[in-house]
Amino acid sequence: MTTPQDELLPGTRRALSHRIALAQAEGRAPSLVAAVVRGGRTVWHGARTSVDGHAPDDNTQYRIGSITKTFTAVLVLRLRDEGLLDLGDPLEKHLPGTGAGEATVADLLAHTAGLAAESPAPWWERTPGALRPELSDVLGEQPLRHPAGRRFHYSNPGYTVLGALVEKLRGAPWEDVLRREVLEPLGLRRTGGRPQAPHAGGWAVHPWADVMLPEPAEDLGRMAPAGQLWSTTGDLARFAAFLARGDDRVLGADSLREMRTPAAPPQEADVVAGYAYGLGLELRRSGERLLVGHSGSLPGFVASLTLAVEDDVAAVVLVNCTSGVPAVTVGADLVRIVADAEPRIPEPWRPSRDVDPAVLELVGQWYWGTYAFGLRLGADGLIALEPLSGNGRGARFRSEGDGTWTGLEGYYAGETLRPVRRADGSVDHLDLGSFVFTRQPYDEGAEVPGGVDPKGWRGIG
Question: 320 with 202: CB under 8 angstroms?
Fold first, then answer.
């Protein structure tokens, strides 16, 4: 008997069902729905509920809170890719008079603008958005808590400002732009700013008794770009697949990779916890696995979207209670269950079609002083320079088409690798940000700054 590779094994499916059953029971949640995505498609859906015979399905809406921020970030990156703004632009250039004009667009996306975590009183999540009709009502008289660009400080008003930026440059309401540019192209027909049946009601479960209280579902008004959306596991599963692969109708893979890259200087507690923030996406370390996505909460609801890019597995968890279920932990566990039980099967190795002899000449062993490195050409056309001992600085590099290469990550991100050739055209050494890499340790035949002792290598005596 064989199992199709796009289906999960029975043992894996049972483990997933057990995990959400445990979460719903221990968290005392009225209901919990979850989905797992692998290879760009939903391969599992599960639900647990306190109502006999009436389990929610992948079409039931829940409020997703701050996962909304990822949608808003996608809209901003679209504006950047179209040349309507630069991430380095100060806010004042596009939205003057906010009181936070020195902060850049990137600062707002990464929560490093220095803005307050919340809007001025009253408690915005439990009061009508009509109480804050203008951007100034959201930001308050003193919007800054820290100097712009200096530290990570999560800010809901910051994403309200980004929503206003989208409206200013598109000339249309944030939700209309979102529907036209993201929701409709991706087929997210059950995602929007207001609930549409079937949808879950939000509940508060008493911390010391098994009784519940309905939570209000306020229209957040101006604050909508920070947390307004309702969605389903079906829609968020498709959105997770988009975040992993990209869709040129909405946002390309390179821009999504940029969103998944840490952009905010972490605080000490974040370093210890393995937490970082990119551009509208959270990054968490779970064991040896890097997870990206976003969490969300509003009165009556908690949610998480979790993606392990290397494993090509994502999970969505939606719950209709204010607290009790650690949705982020449950999502990470669902990813781990699938990724560990059924590891990703790699694509077959295939030889490259065409290789430039000038590039092939660069591969092999190189030395930075006495440190040994290997340079390998990948099937994707990138070259990778990695320490052979496992210790040291490594990076992948992209060809610029003129014989030079640009670093894509780590210490060498943005740095130029340049092969330096002799008069006969052969490669003398590699220049990487002024560091010289030679074929032999301190090759006496190469141009090594400071020269090489003419007596050469020798022992003691």
Answer: yes
Tell the residue number behind the tokens 């879950």, with chain if given.
Answer: 200
- Rounded to whole angstroms, how far apart are CA atoms 378 and 325? 43
> What digits encode the pLDDT tens for the residues 207-257?
999 999 999 999 999 999 999 999 999 999 999 999 999 999 999 999 999
Distances (CA, A) of 368 to 102, 392, 393, 434, 452: 41, 11, 11, 11, 13
DSSP for 153-208? Answer: ---HHHHHHHHHHHHHHHTS-HHHHHIIIIIHHHT-TT-BSS--SSBPPPEEE-TT
pTM of the model: 0.90
Tens digit of pLDDT for each residue in 133-187?
A: 999 999 988 899 999 988 999 999 999 999 999 999 999 999 999 999 999 999 9
Contact (CB, 8 A) for 108 and 90? no
Instruction: Note whether 305 and 37 are within 8 A (CB).
Output: no
How far apart CA 248 and CA 245 sit, in angstroms, is 10
Q: Name residue 243's amino acid.
A: L
CA atoms within 13 A on the CB side of 292: 22
Please name which of 38, 35, 17, 19 lies closest in space to residue 27, comparing C-alpha atoms. 19
Residues in Cβ contact with 156 at an 8 Å cutoff, skipping those fewer than 6 apart: 66, 117, 118, 119, 124, 223, 226, 227
